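Provenance

Sequences were taken from public entries as deposited. Structures were produced by running a predictor on each sequence independently, with no templates supplied. The record for Protein SCAI from Panicum virgatum is shown for reference.
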Amino acid sequence: MADGEAGAYREFKALAEAADRKFARARDLPLYGGGDHHSRKAFKAYTRLWRLQQERRRELVAGGLRRWEIGEVASRIGQLYYARYLRTAEPRSLVGAYVFYEAIYSRGYFGAAAGAEGGGRHQALLIRYKELRFIARFLVVAMLMRRAEAVDHLAGRLRAFVEESKVAYPKTNFKEWKQVLQELGRFLKADGAYKGSRSLRYDNLFDSYPSNLASIARFHSKRVLKLKEAVLTSYRRNEVKFTELTLDTFRMLQCLEWEPTGSYQIAAKELTENGTVSDQSGPSGLIDIHLSAEISDGGLPSNPQKAIIYHPTVSHLLAVLATICEELSQDSILLIYISASGSAEQNMASQKYASSSSSHARAASFPIDKPNSHMSSDNHLWLGPRGSGGPNNLYPEDLIPFTRYPLFLVIDSENSHAFKAIHNAEKGEPAALLLSPRISSAMPGVESTGHGSQFTYFLTAPMQAFCQLAGITSDIDTDTYANAENILFSAFEEYEGILCTSVGLNNVWGQILPDPFLRRLILRFIFCRAVLFYFHPEEHEQHLPTCLPNLPESVSPTVEAIKTPILLLAENLVVSNRFHFRDSRHKK
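Predicted structure for Protein SCAI:
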């Protein structure tokens, strides 16, 4: 080995160690409330490292550089891009992560290293773990990019790789990865329940209604609040999740983003059967570390920034809210989304209600209800593991101090009603509240817990939620589904027109209606409430979601303009017999 070659490799190793230290500092910081300078420092370090292996590749390889080391550097860059996406909500950062991950995968950096390079059995096992974690990260990015074919391929590869690893290392316990595979199976089953459904992101083509622009514009003469920050969290026992991304937050995350257009819509590269390409020695330097900086879409506003908190403690959640509220601008409103059970006992019951309630003897044409746990205390949410204790209870009073700032609060829980206490108790700014039903609804014998929280489902994917509620479990004909989407489009257009021209609309709603994300959530709330209203033969407020302040009577379920599209939708999907449209006893 020449001195120059050895020196180049030593320089690479020194730079890699320095970059790893910066990466560790950036990784350990929360993805909200500043701290982005650590990410920039890490990016700068890996940029220097990447350029070195581009410019002196032959010397480095001759000096001992192995392919998995290049894969590790590229993987760290992909992780930095993904962290930047979570911090800033910039689609181009998500694209950057996908491009790097796809390049690592297609070139088989980790696989080639584990199979062909020396270093001993222990090092080969460590590299195998690196590849397992890499595929899991790639899967999350591919799911957020809605790359269905890539997701299916990667899921199959992960399953096969875990089995291969168990055979290759029989004395090693891969139990954790078996659990990951189980979680992945549940997640993909729920996320792909209705093939062909459109993106959850805000698409101007489907979610904007030109006929109502004039009606919306009238609100601009008064105070208007924009959604610029959101805190998303869910904490339910046995909830559908993959890694640290729960199905509920996964849906809400996408619901609060613009659908990328133009140059963002890069074509996903075709993955080969074994995930590698024939040229295993090709230079990795073809991956452009600055590629995302060249991708722009001037036609779209910025996405709201989102803090996604996985299974937080109450104190952690409140600390995050305090940090974000301090940075809110005067024209901003903070969306707080919490999906959680009301107590530990309700947490357990919520996972079992579908199977237990189906055994009840009742007519097949009537929906079943989730049995309520009659707790002495139903005035809080439960953010914690098994057991009980005050520190895990989130009370409405905990959130009232934050009403010094404009809040849009979405609570999905059996105990959502408790948060009505916030209304008229605000400390400065009246809050807008969307509260889920206390009791979820389902057809007899239809398993529903595996689809995520029902209220969240309606707010983020109303077409799929309607199908799930009506018990449609088989694939829907393409034309029928397209007709259903058109009916829903017309319904929301009409709902929006009625709402924006309603006399007596509370100013709390009026000042946020110009925001497209919040307006869409409100329209879907109106739809959800009306659908559940006609799903039950008799009105029971526990089956219906609630909003505070009250929306105008002109958008109540009994109004013909609200009811008719739901009837048309049910008839189109041949499920009108599962609703109760003829019952005139319904009153609101």
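The longest strand covers residues 226-235.
The radius of gyration is 26 Å.
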